[in-house]
Write a structure and sequence with these properties.
This protein has 303 residues and is mainly alpha-helical. Helices cover 54% and strands 6% of the residues. It contains nine helices and six strands, in the order E-E-E-H-H-E-H-H-H-E-H-E-H-H-H. It is flat. The C terminus is likely disordered.
Amino acid sequence: MTAQLQQPQNGWASQAGGAPSLQLPYRTGNEKNWCFKGYPAFSEWMASDNDLFIVRRFGTLSARVALMLQDRISRLSEELDKVDKECQNRCLHNGDFRGDESVFRQELLERIAVNLERYNQFILNHAQMKARPDATKHQVGNVKAWLFNNENAIREDEAAFIEAEGDLVPVVPRVKVPLRRLIEKSDFMHLFRVNKAKPNRSQSKTTIYTEDTRVDKVVTFTVISIGLGMLIGPLWWLQQITADESNLQIRLGIITGFIIGFAGILSIVTVAKPFEVLAATAAYSAVLMVFMQLGGPASGSGG
């Protein structure tokens, strides 16, 4: 499911999945939004669709906390080294956990274990957060539009999180191919509008919900159509050109054009990596070379 902010007359709207469309401000006109809406309405609206739910990553702050935890463990490690040396000087058993005569060393190891667990868990959690893609401009625009349309609903200093550019992430990220983003930016998105309200959707006057499955079907149909065209097109075109030396450059030009077009289209309609695009293009080129071997119409012979 995708959500977009509906543009009322003289309103500020943005479309989830597309670039924000900023118009004249639309506001509820209620100066007591902090009382009647506030976080209950804001939370309900954010939770109603993945395109609306974005939070801060706190990258700089997380790095500082990680460094602090790291230094804390480093100091405990240095302290443990001193205790080990002291035990050596006193000729105490350094190879016995069960009967360790240094109570302080046992307590120190327990503290190290607790701090290591906390540190490792923090690093793993932060790594997952760091790997998330940044929130897109239209996602940020959606939240800004809601805050603007519902003036005073959230304290200004608490709503300032949305201004932290580069530090905002979607809670549930979704990779969208360029073709899908193009469709979502177009004027055809109103065709995928869902009119029937559902319990999990915020009943906001400025929010329109669209069904992702419908958009996915359009993308799938478009990709299949283009794929068939890229296979059938050169087959029929090459068949119309006589397969002799005089037309060799023309036939090679046709194949070259389709290969370049295939690589470009593959980059648009998929999220494949460059080497994957290259591999698929190589396979497509092999198919076209088979077409190249097909003879065109026989050239006329002189009398």
